[in-house]
Predict the structure.
Amino acid sequence: MKGICQALNEVADVTVWTTEPHYPQKDLYRQADFWEELPQDIKIRRIKTTSANFEQNFLRRFLLYLEVLFCFFKLIIRETETYDIVFVTSPPLSVPFIGLLAKRKFKANFVVDIRDLWPETLRAVKGIFPKLLRYLSYPIEKHIYHRADKLIINSEGFTEYIQKIVGDKRKIYFLPNGLTDFELKLAPASKKEEKITIVYTGNMGIAQDIDSLFHLAESFQRNKKARFLLIGYGRNYMEIQQKINEKGFENIIIKPPESRKRVWKRLQEADIAYIGLKEHPVFETVMPGKVIDYMGASLPIIGVASGYSKRIIEEAHSGVVFHKEDQHKITEKLAELIESQELRKFYGKNGNEYAQQNFNWQTNKGLLYKFIFED
């Protein structure tokens, strides 16, 4: 979103309406590393929220969405400026839903940027409340997509689902996550062969298969050369941390969220990257941002995945991913990667080249202009 704001600001006057940062925890943003500067002429208006400790509690998260919706409603009603384009990001649906009011008030073009199939993702969440919320949200989702002037997706895996809602003739624009030239051209740090680090970064929630990573860690406990580094957040973070302690995994290090700059340095210093997605139809449509980061950092990828993300990794020849039941094959392939520097370089180089061709923010910027400003 920072890249989108900067790119649009080069050709338009941009005002950002957002919340005070609170994901995954508010306390993180007391650290200077978590703040990145935007051009001074971008106006930013932040709303304060009272909801707290929402990450592991679905009801509290829902209440946060309602609070944000209400706060944005008040902003729109009181707004005296005029706008030509309203650009909103989903999930959750509460933001694009209130965007419909902004579209009507400002008589603006309404652009919806879809980064997850919410509420469809709720299929993977057990419980009566998520199921009820999912069915109540489908009509809202349909209304938003039909009223949008432009629909942008960051994963081509979303196309079929959205096309069923809006019809085959409706144009859907694909704008993948991107990396800067600086990130793409950073050379991997020089690494010592004594230790091989297998890194995982990002969310540790309902979609992620961390159990397969535990299986790998257990298989390589006696291998003094291999160590696993987990950096992230999510509803399962504390549970994963507790499991590491209970199982006595001395070859796993787990760290709380870090700034993008710090995580990127960790990726440069690592040797292999892990991707894990649970086998559920809705997760077959996604393209985790971490995969793009892994490719940009020239890291070979191994793990569990299916669907769109698996296709991209295999198309790029940037690593190998298996189905969950193929634990023996994963273990064998990881052993091969640990022992072969040449194989790691092969996959890493392929991934970086693919990222430069397909996930370059400079290219994305041109696509963004075309999508938003074309007639």
Remarks:
- The chain has a mean pLDDT of 90.
- The domain at 186-357 is CATH 3.40.50.2000 (Rossmann fold).
- The radius of gyration is 21 Å.
- The chain is about 45% helix and 15% strand.
